[in-house]
């Protein structure tokens, strides 16, 4: 179902005109209100009034995650704090999180885009939405919550965790729409089976899944095991949260980007040059309508392919394919963003191991596992089992404290992990998505 | 009254143990006693050998992680209850045994055991006070 017939099915020409008008307004606004952008534009020698066509977007500088960290916490905000009604932050990164702000109008825009998202997945007034995305600083829980309310559906704000109780509520409340990560959808199916509940006999009709990469195989598994349609959504807190793009239930072939609010580009991750539709590249977004936290050409590091062919659902919005990987080495483990360099920093702080390591990521019983193989230092080897086990436990604790992710540490012999020759392989991801 | 034991860190990998015995054999080193402690992801091989320095050198040369630890070699009467008598004495005197293992060879008519104690000096005193024979390192290496 299409919630906003006017904007979601605009003829391309009209849509391009709206995009350009909004882009010109945006560029004026950030140049005047965000010192970071004034400096970045000046360095590139570009003035806001030089943006005369959508192609001129390519003259503008990129925004990197590091830029957001450098401007922690609020220096990228384009409105005074008293206009900011909500703050969210990215999960699980070391040191400073990425902070994003919303004005009341931003919250309204976001709620509307989430209502569009849920509608595209076949949700409507009268549905009961079991929302198992985490509530809090993470944008997933509240994003879906506001969208479902805006749509007129009933929301169960169950959040993550306590899976057995979730199964009880699913049985008793009869929700029709499941919103959670794809791996948690499968986990719910397993726990339901353990509790003697036949998931397929529940009232669920559709699952709206995202926040982690998944695959067509996983979709099939979810659809077969849970007896629902599963659609893919995409978003990131920097851009707005969930609600950037969604698959339509009619086609389930690529995610429609809400282009009246976000300009999407694909670029070559190394050269930064624009990549044509149909070829894989890194997704870059420009937020057209956000007030508190607008971003110009934000590099997501997510790899995808854009497709401008018309869709049978009637939307004229460009589609992005499933995320196929990252242009950096970030891992998503149980929904938490993990960079190998963060693990390395833990190992560098210790005197009993050398910072030569291998991360082995796997998925067991639908839960991600992380194993850290690291070389014991010769001097730290005492010959006692308990000393070595203590080293393992201590590193596990340090990783948990820093990243919020549990791991298993395995000590290996010195000089047995591959040394860097150009690019050392630091990660083995065995997850079959 | 201390005997030097060498320990080798071992990943649980096929053939790793054989590499150690090959290195020692090639270096002409005789293994007097050994024990293998293992956990789910690594092991520690403990050895009493004929020539500690030479063994350590050879193993390190082949990339092994080698540590050394002091242990105590104790004569145990080779008859039922022989070991128990010693352990009862240690227990009564509150001396904790971390681990122990046996020699292949006898010392005269007696069996020979290697003990690792938290407090070696206290343990040796308890043993000698109770007329239990503790062997010198040089005796043990050339047994």
Task: Describe the 3D structure.
The complex is a heterodimer of chains A (433) and B (143). Chain A is α/β, with parallel strands linked by helices. Chain A has 11 helices and 21 strands. A 9-stranded mixed beta sheet of chain A has the order 4-3-5-6-7-8-9-14-13. Chain A has a 4-stranded antiparallel beta sheet with strand order 10-11-12-15. In chain A, strands 20-19-18-21 form a 4-stranded mixed beta sheet. The model of chain B has no long low-confidence stretch (mean pLDDT 91). Chain B is globular, with a radius of gyration of 16 Å. Chain B is α+β, with helices and mostly antiparallel strands. Classes of the chains: A alpha/beta (433), B alpha+beta (143). Chains A and B meet through helix 11 and strand 20 of A and strand 1, strand 3 and strand 4 of B.
Average pLDDT level of chain A: 93
> What's the Cα radius of gyration of chain B?
16 Å
Counted beta strands of chain B: 7
Largest sheet of chain A at a glance? 9 strands, mixed
Briefly, what is this?
The complex is a heterodimer of chains A (433) and B (143). Chain A is α/β, with parallel strands linked by helices. Chain A has eleven helices and 21 strands.
Describe the structure using short key phrases.
heterodimer, A: 433 residues, alpha/beta, 9-stranded mixed beta sheet, 4-stranded antiparallel beta sheet, 31% helix, globular, B: 143 residues, alpha+beta, 5 helices
Task: Give the topology.
The complex is a heterodimer of chains A (433) and B (143).
Chain A lengths: L4 H4 L3 H22 L1 H10 L20 H6 L13 E6 L9 E5 H17 L7 E4 L7 H13 L2 E3 L6 H11 L3 E4 L1 H13 L11 E4 L6 H11 L2 E8 L4 E7 L7 E3 L4 E6 L13 E7 L10 E7 L1 E2 L11 E2 L4 E2 L4 E3 L2 E3 L1 H9 L4 E12 L2 E10 L8 H19 L4 E5 L14 E3 L4
Parallel strand pairs in A: 3-4, 3-5, 5-6, 6-7, 18-21, 19-20
Antiparallel strand pairs in A: 1-2, 7-8, 8-9, 9-14, 10-11, 11-12, 12-15, 13-14, 16-17, 18-19
Chain B lengths: L2 E9 L4 H11 L4 E8 L3 E8 L2 H10 L3 E12 L5 H11 L4 E6 L8 E7 L2 H10 L4 E2 L1 H5 L2
Antiparallel strand pairs in B: 1-3, 1-4, 2-3, 4-6, 4-7, 5-6
